[in-house]
Amino acid sequence: MLLDEKRTKRWARVLAIFTSLAFVGGGIVLILVSAFGSPSSSSSQLISDAKAAVSTSPTSVQAWDDLATAYQAANKNTDAITAAKHAAKLDPSDKTSALTLAQLYTTTGQPVSAIAAVQAYTKRVPSDPDGWAQLGQLADNGGNAALAYSAYQRYLAVAPPGATPTAVRGHLPALATVRAAQAVTTAQPKNAAAWDALTAAYLVEQNLNGALTAAVRATTLAPHNASYMSRMASIYTHAGQAAVAAKLASGFTSRNPRNADGFYDLGQLSQAAAEKPQAIAAYRKYLELAPAGPHAAAVKAQLKKLGAS
Fold first, then answer.
1. Close Cβ partners of 301 (under 8 Å, ≥ 6 residues apart)
2. How many angstroms separate the CA atoms of 276 and 278, rounded?
3. What is the distance, to the nearest Å, from the Cα of residue 25 to the centroid of all Cα atoms in its chain?
4. C-alpha distances in angstroms, 253 versus 46, 220, 224, 226, 266?
5. 137 with 228, same domain?
6. Which domain, by its residues, includes 225?
């Protein structure tokens, strides 16, 4: 395949990654799909062709970007990043190379570097709405609400009317809440309540990764607080990890053996994880600690359902 043909197809794939924003409820989720596919028998030839092009035109942004593409196709991510960095350095205002570099950093677990790559581009080309949208998304996913909010505002200032700007505008209130909550945790890093508030803000934004990170901090700072533990367990449950949630609840009851609500949560989470014996034991312990508690009737019904009394 000729290099110019490869570039046309690669450009379309890069745009599919970086300009396809899916707005789910109040949150924004970047569609992260592979830009280059899986390695094939032609990978070595692609790399060889791209290297030849770089040798012929060492100052060509396209040649270096194609080399990055070829390395990525062969899962040689370190080499791909090196080539992509060179392309971006040759022309910091080139969108293709900037987004290629950011995609490579993202897929290799380097979110800070991905943000920096797009920031360099927006600094050079502040009139391009795509750059600001991607910077906002990367910062949002990376837990930097202040930067995300600022980038989205810049996006709205230059973007033409359409569905995406409308969705971004609708997302800003939830993001503003996260930004405010983050400011409190920054000022008071040992305040468990502040971390729990940040957890709640992330959940409204539908950012499970951010919510889980904040919830872990809250429960670490306040290991005896049942509501913090319950919130963290619910995050794992929503993420389809009921067994992990049940394990967390079990740990909480070990630390707090007289907390009836903890055993109620453990019973529910154990049921969700299909851990019947643990659920029965937890429910019985709840009734032992709080025979007339607010969940007593529900617990008795669940025990009957589980074939226990």
1. none
2. 5
3. 15
4. 58, 15, 9, 9, 8
5. no
6. 179-305
144 & 113 share domain: yes
Do 169 and 189 lie in a common domain?
Answer: no
As a whole number of Å, the CA-based R_g of the chain is: 25
Q: Which of 232, 153, 239, 247 is nearest to 196 (CA)?
A: 232
Asked if 207 and 25 count as a contact pair (C-beta separation under 8 A), the reply is no
Whether the model pTM is above 0.85:
no
Given a contact cutoff of 8 angstroms between Cβ atoms, the answer to whether 10 and 3 are in contact is: no
Q: What is the pLDDT of residues 73-126, one digit of tens each?
A: 899 999 999 999 999 999 999 999 999 999 999 999 999 999 999 999 999 999
Which of 155, 181, 151 has the alpha carbon at shortest distance from 166? 155
Query: Residue 195 in contact with residue 185, Cβ under 8 Å?
Result: yes
Instruction: List the CATH number of the domain containing 188.
Output: 1.25.40.10
What single string gives the DSSP state of each residue in 87-118? HHHH-TT-HHHHHHHHHHHHHTT-HHHHHHHH
Q: Return the DSSP state at 28.
A: E
Q: How far apart are CA 246 and CA 237, in angstroms?
A: 9
- What is the length of the chain? 309
Same domain, 193 and 282: yes
Mark the ranges of the chain whose per-residue pLDDT is less than 70: 1-41, 309
3-class secondary-structure state, position 86 = helix
Please state, as a whole number, how many other Cβ atoms lie within 10 Å of the Cβ of residue 296: 16
C-beta of residue 109 within 8 angstroms of C-beta of residue 73: no
DSSP state of 293: S
- Could you tell me the sign of the dihedral formed by the alpha carbons of 237, 204, 130, 146, in that order? negative
**Beta carbons within 10 angstroms of residue 140's beta carbon:** 25
